[in-house]
DNA sequence: ATCTTGCATTTTGTATACAACATGCCAAAG
DNA sequence: CTTTGGCATGTTGTATACAAAATGCAAGAT
């Protein structure tokens, strides 16, 4: 966290391609279950098949694609069970982040988080869902940063990225949204009190509520 | 868990290469920090550079290699901090596995685990360290299987694989080993009582003890 | 003597040709 | 009419050639 990174970000071609594909998947341009034709895609992206294949491998590692031998890559189609399992793990990790953060949080950190909580409530008040999600994410990132465990942050990020293939925005109806904001307030209180166990419980329950919301948006899909 | 998979395992060349490299890394033939020359390695393994590169990507995804742009791949060199962070996350995941398992365990499962516990104690009694580790791993796998969350199992496996690059076997002196076996007995008790919270605590502490042992074997290495 | 600068060599990155495999169709047999 | 075998076509897997980048060394300048 100390020192500055002045190196210019040199992204390799596979990385750029992977990022591009990731966006296409998250935005839904590439639907879950869709098969990705290498030649076709490589022409569209303007790269040859080799770097594209490396991009496939990266995305497969993140769980956004599955690769079948001799049958290429396709966008993952997560079942409700998959989502449930992923959330179960993410809740546990988020709880750990809370515990760690409670043990290490400084007053300066708390001030930052209080400011973010303010942003969150304002976004809520004006029903600005995109803004709400942005702040929400910022709070989460900050918490993870305070927790100070890069492996934890990385693991969480990977799991989360996988779920984004679903792109469940929307679906925060009034009651649920109000409750979520209130939960955030409780969480901030537990953190200020340095009560790791309480924060952990709150986070786990918070994630559980989120899971329910996501499952509802998924509706009665397959499996 | 129902039904049999009769499909013959068709491993692709990159998979085979990755598996081979994984073994070389774990066994220490490829030391941490070592740079992997593509041409050289591809000749030694008898594959061309393309599948080898895909193998690199897979291992990098598992965290066994790091890939630097235009500078190839090298075996990760984990710092003590890295190990600490990884164990922190693994302990949390293992705890979750315990909680879930306690909620779903059947009497038949318990019988299996009791048998394994017997194996463990026998291996301990005759100071059979490799055997002990094997049974230890079997118990862990069984627990994860009972927990019934593939995402959890997968995440744990990945983290664990990364640590194996260190190949810390050995280093279980008398006292620690005795204590580990006793802990296993307690864990089995908590599972039999379906006490998820207790099992969770035991597992987290168990992993914490393991971390200490690992850190000792790492000695006063760099960073 | 040390530091820079350019060149030679090595190594990685990308494109592409060719081989292996999968898939769908059609015809022929039951 | 259904099923099976073979073939044609398309798609992925692998090898290799070429391009771009990095590294090490040596010669010259300060």
From TrEMBL, chains A, B:
PROSITE patterns: HTH_GNTR. Keywords: DNA-binding, Transcription, Transcription regulation. It comes from the Bacteria. Residues 11-78 form the HTH gntR-type domain. InterPro entries: GntR_C (IPR011711), TF_FadR/GntR_C (IPR008920), Tscrpt_reg_HTH_GntR (IPR000524), WH-like_DNA-bd_sf (IPR036388), WH_DNA-bd_sf (IPR036390). PANTHER family: TRANSCRIPTIONAL REGULATOR, GNTR FAMILY, TRANSCRIPTIONAL REGULATORY PROTEIN. This is GntR family transcriptional regulator. GO terms for molecular function: DNA binding; DNA-binding transcription factor activity. It comes from Reyranella soli.
């Amino acid at each position: 966290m100390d020192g500055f990174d002045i190196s210019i970000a040199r992204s390799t071609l596979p990385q750029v391609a992977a990022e591009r594909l990731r966006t296409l998947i998250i935005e839904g341009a590439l639907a879950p279950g869709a098969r990705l034709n290498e030649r076709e895609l490589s022409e569209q992206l303007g790269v040859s098949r080799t770097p594209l294949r490396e991009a496939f491998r990266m995305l497969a590692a993140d769980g956004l694609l599955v690769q079948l031998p001799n049958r290429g890559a396709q966008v993952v189609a997560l079942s409700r069970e998959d989502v449930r399992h992923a959330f179960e793990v993410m809740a546990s990790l988020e709880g750990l982040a809370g515990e760690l953060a409670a043990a290490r949080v400084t007053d300066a950190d708390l001030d930052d988080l209080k400011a973010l909580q303010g942003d969150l409530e304002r976004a809520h008040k004006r029903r600005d869902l995109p803004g709400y999600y942005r702040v929400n994410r910022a709070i989460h990132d900050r918490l993870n940063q305070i927790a100070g465990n890069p492996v934890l942050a990385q693991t969480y990020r990977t799991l989360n990225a996988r779920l984004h293939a679903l792109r469940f925005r929307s679906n925060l109806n009034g009651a649920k949204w109000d409750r979520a904001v209130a939960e955030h307030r409780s969480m901030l209180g537990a953190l200020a009190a340095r009560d790791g166990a309480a924060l952990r419980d709150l986070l786990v329950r918070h994630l559980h509520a989120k899971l329910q919301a996501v499952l509802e948006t998924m509706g009665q899909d397959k499996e």
